[in-house]
Design brief:
Layout lengths: L7 H12 L3 H14 L4 E7 L5 E6 L9 H4 L24 H7 L2 E7 L6 E7 L2 E2 L3 E3 L4 E7 L6 H4 L5 H18 L4 E5 L5 E4 L6 H12 L7 E8 L2 E8 L4 E2 L5 E5 L2 E3 L2 H10 L9 E2 L1 E6 L5 E2 L10 E2 L2 H19 L5 H11 L6 E2 L2 E2 L6 H7 L48 H15 L5 E6 L3 E5 L3 E6 H18 L5 E11 L2 H9 L1 H6 L3 E4 L4 E8 L7 H15 L3 H18 L9 H13 L13 E5 H7 L4
Parallel strand pairs: 1-8, 13-16
Antiparallel strand pairs: 1-2, 2-7, 3-4, 3-7, 4-5, 4-6, 8-9, 10-11, 11-16, 12-15, 13-14, 17-18, 19-20, 21-22, 22-23, 23-27, 24-26, 25-26
Helix pairs in contact: 1-4, 2-6, 6-7, 8-9, 10-11, 13-17, 13-18, 14-16
Length: 627
Amino acid sequence: MPIRQLSETMINQIAAGEVIERPASVVKELVENALDAGASRVEIVTAGGGLNLIRVTDDGSGIPEPELSLAIARHCTSKLAEDINDIRSLGFRGEALPSIGSVSRLSIRSRTASGDSAAEIGIEGGRVLPVRPAAANRGTTVEVRDLFFATPARLKFMKGERAESSATSDVVKRIAIAFPAVRFTLAGSDRSTLDLPATDDSPEGSLRRVAQVMGAEFPDNSIAIDAMREGVRLTGHVSIPSFTRANALQQYAYVNGRPVRDKLIAGAIRGAFADVLPRDRHAVTVLFLSLDPAIVDVNVHPAKADVRFRDPGLVRGLIVGAIRQALADAGIRSATTGAAGMMAAFRPGAASYDHGGPANGHRSYEAAYRASGSAGFDPARSPQRPLDMQFGGFERAGAKNGGFGEPGQAAFDTGPLASADARAGQSEAAETLLGAVLGAARAQVHENYIVAQTRDSLVIVDQHAAHERLVYEALKNALHSRPVPSQMLLLPEIIDLPEEDAERLAMHSETLARFGLGIERFGPGAVAVRETPSMLGETNVQQLVRDLADEIADNDTVETLKERLDKIAATMACHGSVRSGRLLKAEEMNALLRQMEATPGSGTCNHGRPTYIELKLADIERLFGRR
């Protein structure tokens, strides 16, 4: 078959296959054009999930009548000058409008601030209609009807109307978070309306916009992030470890104001929360990266959702380090949703639960707890055998009082009555403890839960989960404060690798040695492993080294080895922590509470379940009808 030039319509339809995947893609492109035009109000209307109708109206600068024909021509744009490395707008390729017009019936009606009247141009399946006068206010209205009528095969891949509408709503929300000073409204054929009033560009205004999108409870359960490293700045908010979701859909990331879905950023978020979240649970995040446009490539894919960083290791390290530091600085905090679950448990009918579901139409405490975002812990994964270890001032197994796991402990004994002066001193000390975050211990119930009182709340602490976290943090600090002990292999393990992988491993050999893994080059395309971390015991050295090589190639880090060591430390902490069923004296309970307050991340155990729940006095009074 001879080589021939494709028609302009065919070229645009090929481009549309990359840019316009579904109605949500059309909405994304049109809203970005409105924002680049300086709009302060964007209105979106859809019908049939966007397949029948998409109308986007803005009050931006508008398009002059002589430029309307250029606006629908391929690779024509006002947003890019000569330097492809200096992209400061959302759009820049000049492909969206002609691509949309090649697979739908498109009309653009626009009027500038200085124009006496508006003008309109249309495209039907790639056929351009002449420009004609129209009536309109300042700004632009783009209307897309019968999406994919010119390429009916694509319609077979569309989902139902509800799914397409949900995807459109998600796109609008993602964009709206980055532009709090703009009002967004989205109306669908099912009469549902999303209205996001404008706030302002201040940090407080930005957080209010986040609350509009992610729910009013997010600000109270989040931690602010503000960090900078080598010209790259990271700002935003992340949820506290006890406030989670079942999927990662509420993880929003932005690069220079552009919404992105980048695997490097997603992986960094997972790494930062690795040892504080339950399995299969995800943090809620809104992160903004600001950096020189020259060191990030947004021209990776026509949809502009992927980006590439010149120094991915720097970006990943900044995200992981900033989040972990913020979690540590925030101290101990419990999610407000935990109190909501507890309140639900006390309501009439909430305790009636069987395998068929809650009775009387009320949720059980278990259901309310899971809905609150704090579920995910499997008690079967928590061994109940004591280990002869000492952390945090508690006796070792076999010492006085029988150790952590002895079943035959003496009953709780407060000792002989103290003198009046001594009791007065104790009252003053107790009053001081009431001002602490976790307050003063008052009792231990069911040999596992510590009940404490603060000035305005009641706190219930799971003693095993809390001490498990304390032991784990102590082990981690000891593990990472000095080189990890290693064991010499009787015979070096020779591993054949691609030359580039062997070179990458050799470049990180000093870091790997600090974690107990001794690696050196062994000729071209091979490395010799002479030492492995003693904590790993018998391990598959070949697989470990290949996993490290893959991670270094992707992220320029050696987190795989560190994560394996941390998992071993977590297992040791689970065995060595104070057992359920261990009777504690008042001094021991208060010591545990004070250590929790001083230990970062102690709001959750190693498995991610909460270590304590706080119920405010106002909530208790509401339960008794006193408010």
